Write a sequence for this structure.
C-alpha cells in the first residue's frame, strides 16, 4: 500500500473532496429525513436498500465479482449489522436531538478507534503516535460536548454520548474488514454487499416492529431524502475506493478532515447552527490527533 505522491493528480483531490462532501452531508440529510416523521427502522432499511441498488448496479456494470460464496456472504452480514445497521439507526435517532455539525466532530474518531482496536488486538503494533493521536482526537470530541462548543445545551448530552457508539461501531467494522475480508473480491463489491446485508436485516425488523406500517402516508415526503441518502452513500464509497486504489489507505483516511469541516458547514447552511467558540479548539484537537495518527501509521 503506497502513500500519496508529491504531486497528486487532480482526480485524487476531487475524490477526496467528493467523498468528504458526501459523508459530511449525511448527518444533515438524516436530520431532514427525520423531520418527515418516518420511523427509524423504515428509514435506515430503505436508504440502505437504495444505496445497495445504486452501488450494486455500478459493480455489475464494471464486471466486478460479487461476494456470493459463504465467506463473502458471512463477511457482508457481519459488516452490514455492525458497520451499517446498528450505527445508522442510532445516527437517525440521535440526529433528531443534536446539531448536524456536532456528529462531524465525532466521525473522525472511527480511524482513531480502528488503530487502537487493531493495536490492542495484536494486529498492529501500538506506537506512541497511535496513543498520542487517539488522546488528542478523543479530547477534541469530548471538548465538543462542553457548554460553549457544538452542543446547544446540556439536555442533548446523553444523546451526544450515545452517538459515540457510532464511530465505535465503524471502527469494529473496519477491524472485521481488515482481518476477515474475503480474498479476490473488490472493495466496492464488498461495500455493495454490506449495504445489501444491512437492508436485508433492517427491513424485516421494520416490518415486524410496525415501522413499515407506521411509515404509511409518509413515504411521499421521505422518499426524496431516502434516495438522496442512498446516493450519498454510493457516491462516497465510489470516491473512497478510487482513492484507495490510486493512493492507498493512508491518503484515503484524510477524508476525515473533509468530513469534519464540511459537516460543520452543512449544519450552518441548512440549519443555521452556530457552534460556540470551543468548537474551534475541539476541531483543532481532532485534526491534530488525525495528523499524528496518519503520520505514525
Amino acid at each position: 500500500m503506497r502513500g500519496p505522491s508529491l504531486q497528486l493528480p487532480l482526480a485524487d483531490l476531487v475524490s477526496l473532496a467528493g467523498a468528504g462532501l458526501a459523508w459530511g452531508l449525511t448527518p444533515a440529510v438524516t436530520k431532514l429525513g427525520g423531520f418527515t416523521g418516518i420511523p427509524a427502522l423504515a428509514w435506515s432499511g430503505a436508504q440502505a436498500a437504495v444505496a445497495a441498488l445504486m452501488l450494486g448496479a455500478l459493480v455489475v456494470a464494471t464486471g466486478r465479482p460479487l461476494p456470493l460464496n459463504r465467506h463473502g456472504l458471512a463477511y457482508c452480514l457481519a459488516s452490514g449489522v455492525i458497520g451499517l445497521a446498528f450505527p445508522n439507526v442510532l445516527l437517525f435517532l440521535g440526529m433528531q436531538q443534536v446539531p448536524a455539525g456536532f456528529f462531524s466532530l465525532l466521525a473522525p474518531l472511527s480511524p482513531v478507534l480502528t488503530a487502537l482496536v487493531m493495536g490492542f488486538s495484536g494486529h498492529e503494533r501500538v506506537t506512541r503516535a497511535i496513543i498520542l493521536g487517539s488522546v488528542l482526537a478523543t479530547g477534541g470530541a469530548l471538548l465538543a460536548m462542553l457548554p460553549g462548543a457544538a452542543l446547544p445545551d446540556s439536555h442533548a448530552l446523553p444523546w451526544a454520548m450515545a452517538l459515540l457508539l457510532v464511530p465505535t461501531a465503524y471502527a469494529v467494522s473496519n477491524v472485521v474488514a481488515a482481518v476477515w475480508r474475503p480474498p479476490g473480491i473488490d472493495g466496492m463489491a464488498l461495500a455493495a454487499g454490506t449495504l445489501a446485508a444491512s437492508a436485508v436485516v433492517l427491513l424485516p425488523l421494520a416490518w415486524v416492529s410496525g415501522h413499515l406500517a407506521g411509515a404509511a402516508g409518509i413515504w411521499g415526503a421521505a422518499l426524496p431524502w431516502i434516495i438522496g441518502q442512498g446516493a450519498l452513500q454510493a457516491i462516497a464509497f465510489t470516491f473512497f475506493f478510487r482513492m484507495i486504489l490510486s493512493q492507498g489507505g493512508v491518503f484515503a483516511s484524510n477524508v476525515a478532515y473533509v468530513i469534519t469541516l464540511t459537516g460543520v458547514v452543512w449544519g450552518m447552511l441548512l440549519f443555521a447552527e452556530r457552534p460556540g467558540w470551543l468548537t474551534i479548539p475541539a476541531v483543532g484537537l481532532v485534526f491534530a490527533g488525525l495528523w499524528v495518527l496518519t503520520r505514525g501509521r
Residues 1-6 have pLDDT under 50 and may be disordered.
